[in-house]
Specification:
The chain is α/β, with parallel strands linked by helices. The chain has 2 domains: 167 residues, FAD/NAD(P)-binding domain, CATH 3.50.50.60; 178 residues, 2-Layer Sandwich (D-Amino Acid Oxidase, Chain A, domain 2). Helices cover 27% and strands 25% of the residues. Helix 4 crosses helix 7 and helix 4 packs across helix 9.
C-alpha cells in the first residue's frame, strides 16, 4: 500500500486487544458514532478469562491507594446500569450479583489487621462491618470452625467475567464494528504520528487513532520507540474452577489470608438473578436463606500471583496451594469436582493503577495496566476512552491515571 493511501483512515479507531477493556472501549466508541476496528488473535483468552469477576473496591483496598479506590467506586456504581444495558442490547446476562463479600480472619493477629482495614475504610466513607466468630458462621454456615471473626463488605459484588466478555463481544459485533482475529506485528508511524497497524500476515490497517488495550502484552508490540511503550509487566495468576453442591457453597464471596497466603472463593449461581440487584447479603445473626435450592454450581478459587514473565504454563504447586487454602476456609471444597485450571497474565503497572489516556505520540491512546481491577474498571474505562476520542477530553475521574504520569514508587 502506498504511503498516501496508508494515511487515509480506514477506521476512526483501531483497538488492539479484545479483552473486556478493549471491547468496552470499542462498544462505547461505536455508540458515539465512531467507526471501529478491533484486532486480537484470540479474543477473551487472557486475563478476561482467568479472572474471577470480583467487583471489590473495598476488599482490594491497600494503604496509599485512595485515588484508585475512588476510581474503583465510581466504576462499581456504574455496574447496575451497565449490566442492564448489555442485557437489553444483547439479550445476555452477565451474572451481576450484589451479594457482598466476607473476609475471614485466620487468627487473632489477622483479625486485628482486618479491624485496622475496616477503620481505614470507614475514614474513606466505606460501609464495612466487623464480625465476631459467631456472626461469621451465621453468614457462611460451612466455614471452618474456630475462626475468630472477620469483616463484611456489603458493597463488594461480583460479575461472571466470561459472560461479561461474551456479552461485550456480541454488543461490539452487533454495533457494526469490524472484528479481526489476527495478531498485530507492529504499530505503524508516519513521522511522529501513529497511523495504523500491520498484522502478522503483512496486512496494513489504517486508523485515525490506535487504542492499545492488549493487557500485559501492551508493551511488547513492535513499532513504538522504547520510551513510548506502556509501562506494564505481566503478573501470572491461576484460578481453579470447581463444581459442588449448592447447599455447601458459600452464599457470598469468601476471602481470607491463610497463614500469609491470600485466597478467595467466588460462588457462581446459574439459577440466580439474570441481572440487576441480585440477592442482598444476609445479616449477621440471621443466616443466609437458601430457599430450598439444590443441584450444583460453580465455585471459582483464586488467585496465585507470580512474577514469571510471560510463561502461562499451569504450575501444580500453585493449584495445590489454592485448593489447600480454600479447603482451610471452607472444608466442603475437598468434596468438589475439579473442573478447570486457568492461567492468565495480569497487566501490572509501576503503581498498580491503570494507564489510561493519550500518550506522547500523536494518534496513540493506551488503556492498560488495570492489574487486579480490570473487570471492575471496565465500565469507567470504556466510557472514559470513548469520551476522550469523541469529545477530545478525558473525564476528570481519569485524570490521575494518564499514562505520562510519574508513579510515586515502583510497586510489584
Amino acid at each position: 500500500m502506498e504511503p498516501t493511501e496508508r494515511r487515509r483512515p480506514a477506521a476512526d479507531v483501531l483497538v488492539i486487544g479484545a479483552g473486556v477493556i478493549g471491547l468496552a472501549i470499542a462498544w462505547r466508541c461505536r455508540q458515539r458514532g465512531l467507526s471501529v476496528t478491533v484486532v486480537d488473535p484470540a479474543p477473551g483468552s487472557g486475563a478476561s478469562r482467568t479472572a474471577a469477576g470480583m467487583l471489590a473496591p473495598v476488599t482490594e483496598l491497600h494503604y496509599g491507594e485512595q485515588s484508585l479506590l475512588a476510581l474503583n467506586l465510581a466504576s462499581a456504581a456504574r455496574y447496575p446500569s451497565f449490566a442492564a444495558e448489555l442485557q437489553e442490547v444483547t439479550g445476555r446476562s452477565i451474572g451481576y450479583r450484589r451479594s457482598g463479600t466476607v473476609v475471614a480472619a485466620w487468627d487473632a493477629a489477622d483479625l486485628a489487621a482486618l479491624r485496622d482495614l475496616a477503620g481505614f475504610a470507614a475514614t474513606l466513607g466505606q460501609p464495612v462491618q466487623t464480625l465476631t466468630g459467631r456472626e461469621l458462621r451465621a453468614l457462611v454456615p460451612g466455614i471452618a470452625p474456630g475462626l475468630p471473626g472477620g469483616l463484611l463488605a456489603p458493597e463488594d459484588h461480583q460479575v461472571d467475567n466470561r459472560r461479561l466478555h461474551g456479552a461485550l463481544l456480541a454488543a461490539v459485533a452487533g454495533s457494526g464494528a469490524a472484528l479481526i482475529d489476527a495478531p498485530v506485528a507492529r504499530i505503524d508511524l508516519a513521522g511522529d504520528r501513529v497511523n495504523g497497524v500491520t498484522l502478522a500476515d503483512g496486512t496494513a490497517l489504517a486508523a485515525g487513532t490506535v487504542v492499545l488495550a492488549a493487557g500485559a502484552h501492551s508493551g511488547r508490540i513492535a513499532g513504538l520507540p522504547e520510551g513510548a511503550r506502556p509501562r506494564v509487566h505481566p503478573v501470572k495468576g491461576q484460578t481453579v474452577r470447581l463444581r459442588m453442591a449448592v447447599e455447601t457453597m458459600p452464599p457470598l464471596i469468601l476471602r481470607g489470608t491463610v497463614k500469609g497466603a491470600p485466597v478467595y472463593l467466588v460462588p457462581r449461581d446459574p439459577d440466580g438473578p439474570a441481572s440487576g440487584d441480585g440477592a442482598a447479603p444476609a445479616r449477621p445473626g440471621v443466616g443466609p436463606a437458601r430457599g430450598g435450592r439444590s443441584g450444583t454450581a460453580e465455585l471459582v478459587i483464586g488467585a496465585s500471583s507470580e512474577e514469571a514473565g510471560f510463561d502461562c504454563t499451569p504450575r501444580a504447586g500453585a493449584v495445590y496451594e489454592l485448593l489447600r487454602d480454600a479447603q482451610s476456609l471452607l472444608p466442603a471444597v475437598s468434596e468438589a469436582e475439579l473442573v478447570e485450571v486457568s492461567t492468565g497474565l495480569r497487566p501490572g503497572s509501576p503503581d498498580n493503577a491503570p494507564l489510561i489516556g493519550r500518550t506522547g505520540i500523536d494518534g496513540l491512546v493506551v488503556a492498560t495496566g488495570h492489574y487486579r481491577n480490570g473487570v471492575l474498571l471496565t465500565p469507567i474505562t470504556g466510557d472514559g476512552v470513548a469520551a476522550l476520542l469523541a469529545d477530545g477530553d478525558l473525564p476528570p475521574a481519569l485524570d490521575a491515571f494518564q499514562p505520562e504520569r510519574r508513579a510515586p514508587q515502583e510497586v510489584r
